[in-house]
Amino acid sequence: MVTSAQIRAARGLLNWTVRELADRSGVHRNTITRIETEETAGGHSSATVRAALEAAGVQFIDENGEGAGVRLRKFRGLSRQLRPDEGDSEPADNGANADHSDVDYPSDDD
Q1: pLDDT score of 6
Q2: What is the pTM of this model?
Q3: Among 10, 27, 50, 84, whose Cα sits 20 to 30 Å from the Cα of 33?
Q4: Domain membership flag for residue 89
């Protein structure tokens, strides 16, 4: 069983607001707040929220004597973990490979 703390932690790993989790899971944000504050028992809504978080890359770790937890799954072929909504978009052009031949740099003679 997933705990309310795991749900909160999973949402934090993804940097999602309650509203974002509600949009992605189809569960009303008030229900998510109740799940996260242990005001409601597990059920269909909790399972739906868990499924949305897992689809985004969260792995729930069962109690193993050291405490339950969460982590983001590692995406193959990447040297770092990406949030699922980062996708495979082109990297931003930071100018590192730009041609600066038109720039008038001061010479050492000045």
Answers
A1: 94
A2: 0.66
A3: 84
A4: no
Summary count for the chain: helices (H), strands (E):
4, 2
What CA–CA distance (Å, rounded) separates 60 from 37?
Answer: 18
Closest CA to 52 of 78, 85, 87, 80: 85
> What is the Rg, in whole angstroms, of the alpha carbon atoms belonging to the chain?
22
- Give me the average pLDDT of each 10-residue run along the chain (110 residues): 93 96 97 91 89 96 87 68 49 45 53
> Looking at this protein, which amino acid is placed at residue 32?
I
Let me know if residue 38 belongs to a domain. Answer: yes
Residue type, 62: D
φ, ψ for residue 85, nearest 5 deg: -85, 0
Q: Give domain status of residue 90, yes or no.
A: no
